[in-house]
Amino acid sequence: MASNSEPAPDAQESARNQTLERCLEVLHDAKNDSEQFAALLLVTKTVRASDIDAKTRRRIFNAVGFTFPHRLLVSQETPTGCSQHVYRSLGLTLLACFCTDPDLAGHPQVLNKIQLLNETIVSDCEANDVPLTSMIDDAYQCLNGILATSKGPTQMVSNGTLPCLSRVYLHHSYGWHQALDLLARLLTTAGAKCWKKCKSDLVKVLSRLSRDFQKAEDMSKFKLCEILPRFLPPSPLLMESSWGVECQRSIYQGLARILSSKLDESRRNPALQLAGCLVSDYNADWILAESRLKNSKFLALLVNLACVEVRLCLEEPDPGYADSRQNLITACYAAMELGIQECTREESLLTEAQKLQLIAILQEACGAIMYYLNQVGWQRMEDPFIFASVRILSAWLAEETSALKEEVCELLPFLIQYSRTRFQLGAACRDLPRQVAELALCSSSWGSLWPGDALRFLLPALCHLTAEERPRRILIAEGAPALLLEYFQHLWDTFASDEHSSEEVSLQTACGIFLNLVVTAPDLVRQEHCFSSLMTLLLTSLPTLLQKKEHLVLAANVATLGLMMARLLASSQDLGDAAVMKEFFRASILFLRRAHVSEMNRGSDKLTIAVSGSYKAAWGDMSELWFLGMQAFASCVPLLTWLPQEVLDSRWIQDVLELLGSVCPTSVDLELVSAFQGILKEQAEKSPACKELILSQGGAEKANLYGMAALEQCLCEESKRC
């Protein structure tokens, strides 16, 4: 019985190794093509029969090289009695063997075979045509090996591999599963290049995948959930065409069916990840359906499921549980951010009832994020997942700071230290060559305008938190003002070199934070050296900034913050050079005096006061700053002896009085009257020349007409003395 049984595995392996050794000896000693060809036939059978190690593969390559396989691949002859593909089949088998070695797969002699490999995979064949299907399988193995090399993806795109893979998939030819997998990997590696070079082919593939996903009733729909994210085009390509709208609708309908069903996590989670990718790239625009009601229900469901998943993962005592689900949680973060946006938008897809429900569950999810960051954040500063967690939490805190106050205050030291660490890393990397810096800075796939820049996302939250006493005390204790000044300087330098950059909004928000500190912690402003540095930056920046109308809101922030700080620093040595100060105040006067003009009221012959045309578009964003700036300027008049003369030289007083005299008094609201009175009164009290000018321009009568009691009293006292 023993003699008729199969050899033991070890014996089989030993026999194969002996055969391979003999073949390699023959190859080494072959004197002509016939002998080499015969030895190679035996080698390929041995190669296919076992998994060879890297050392043996190298020995085969050293014995054969690239020249003979190349001749086999391009030969048009066929030995008598052999298959027409025998040479090419043998050449592909050898090439497939070599391509399992990364060094060989990236060799120019392999890369120049890409077009031949493309021709092979699109060959028409039946599944039972073993020689041809074997060649196609070898071609896919070669392409997979090439794709894994540094130059491979670019070479495959430029040599037309993508259209061939698309054709195989669309026709469901032999190997279409391999083609789809290879397409997905190629898009993951070189997505932008693929869409730029082969858009029409990828449109067909994505459209087919989307339709299949919409219609699928079996397990394939869950596989498609995993693969579809790789085929999504760069934003906003999917929004700009009818085919894109159809793809969105198909994906939306497929996801709605999955997420509305009761499924276990292994089936639900791929759908959440697909939805997260769509949200990240296309916000809420991809949620297309027949009715607004369905839109809102799906959005509420998506955000709800995302919040539940975040809580389940992050509230686990074992951090390893969350670690194993980071991609899923990051996708859920994107859905949560969409939920936050929709809950705070006036024209939202959500109803008020849905908003209230989602706000509650978003709060619970953010509580879980804070718990997680307190547990592991300090130990994992370099983890991109921590960055993603800080980002979504910042989005929540930017809109809601009244909830979870204890938890927020407890986490603030970590958030400041984390932001400082990321900013310092960014500063170090900015001095490195670009390629090195890109490797050194970690960023979340969720996206970041500047990789590692946690402060950019945290700024809106800090603007709220610095207005509250307890968070403000913690932020000051953690050195936040000095950090914010460094960051402000970085933003300003970037903005100064490229005024079309995205830093302007962040600069405005940072000004808001400093304004909060100036108003609520004036002693800090007087004592901390960083504020004198900030003052210097503001003084030198405003005159230039004010010349550019497109940056008017930022100029309003800089002017108002500078005036507010000047009130506090006027008696110190921190105001800097007198000439620079005067230039700043001249620019401030220009900013304040330009805001209002007289215009003819429609339907009557009376002039009314109005916001000037150049300020009108931005007035909603800067009106509060203008009024605060007026108050601050008035406060500076008695503190700076030279300031009244600057006002006189500017002819601002004449402009104000002329404006008030030309318009209908009822068109000037009380807040504006108060602002003008503050400036005129302080000038009159501080400077006799200003008093005389105001009186000569009918200031007393205008004060009486507009109910400016304080100004009227000041001028009357002067008149009596005269």
TrEMBL record:
<dbReference type="GO" id="GO:0030425">
    <property type="term" value="C:dendrite"/>
</dbReference>
<comment type="similarity">
    <text>Belongs to the neurochondrin family.</text>
</comment>
<dbReference type="InterPro" id="IPR016024">
    <property type="entry name" value="ARM-type_fold"/>
</dbReference>
<protein>
    <recommendedName>
        <fullName>Neurochondrin</fullName>
    </recommendedName>
</protein>
<dbReference type="Pfam" id="PF05536">
    <property type="entry name" value="Neurochondrin"/>
</dbReference>
<dbReference type="InterPro" id="IPR008709">
    <property type="entry name" value="Neurochondrin"/>
</dbReference>
<dbReference type="GO" id="GO:0048168">
    <property type="term" value="P:regulation of neuronal synaptic plasticity"/>
</dbReference>
<dbReference type="GO" id="GO:0031175">
    <property type="term" value="P:neuron projection development"/>
</dbReference>
